[in-house]
Amino acid sequence: MDNEKNEGEGSKTADKKYREAATDFAKRTDTLQTGLEAEREVEGSKDEYEKAEKAGRAHSAGELRNDLTGEDFDKK
Question: 70 Cβ partners below 8 Å, 6+ apart?
């Protein structure tokens, strides 16, 4: 039987694990370099990422202004 207690949506255990992993990643990684590499990847595959963004917005419940159109999304 599983002894883990369901903490619900605000899981303190999951939050703690995430923060520890994020801190560990930041300590052992050149985050500036990793960010620049990610930016180059996105720029190199811009059409793919825009297609994925449109697909994601198409599933939006539309709670926020312009969710579906993306007019409020700051693009360079």
Answer: 53, 54, 57
Number of domains into which the chain is organized: 1
What the block records as the tokens of 38 is 């990610």
CA distances from 19 to 9, 12, 15, 30, 33 (A): 16, 10, 6, 18, 21
Domain span holding position 22: 12-58
1 domain-assigned: no
**Is residue 44 a part of any domain in this protein?**
yes
Whether 66 maps to a domain, the answer reads no
pLDDT along the chain (76 residues), means of 10: 69 93 95 94 93 83 68 63
pLDDT in tens, 24-43: 999 999 999 999 999 999 99
